[in-house]
Amino acid sequence: MASRIEGLLGSRQQLMRDMSHELRSPFVRLRATIALAQRKHPLTLAEHTHIVRELERMNQAIGDVLRLTRLE
User: Fold this and answer.
1) What is the pLDDT along the chain (72 residues), one digit of tens a residue?
2) Would you say 23 and 62 are in contact if contact means Cβ atoms under 8 Å apart?
3) pTM score > 0.70 for this model?
4) Which of 21, 52, 69, 71 has the fewest C-beta atoms under 10 angstroms from its C-beta?
5) What gap in Å lies between CA 72 and CA 64, rounded to an integer?
6) Angle at which helices 45-71 and 2-40 pack, to 10 degrees?
7) Domain of 19: which CATH number?
8) 32, exposed or middle or buried, with CB in 10 Å at 0-12, 13-18, 19+?
9) How many CA atoms lie within 13 A of 54 on its CB side?
């Protein structure tokens, strides 16, 4: 029973790591896409600030999941 629980906990940790990686990859591509798009169609300061703020919130959430996984 103990080995089964240990296996399940290991699987859970791997799942969290995989999920975090899968979220981080599109996040990085999204930031690059926004930077390229802004060269052709500059955003207003308010639009840029809003997008950057939301991207940072997403990045923070992903980082929190990674930290939680490491702490467990």
Assistant:
1) 888 888 888 888 888 778 777 877 888 888 888 888 888 888 888 888 898 898 889 888 888 877 877 776
2) yes
3) no
4) 71
5) 12
6) 160
7) 1.10.287.130
8) exposed
9) 9
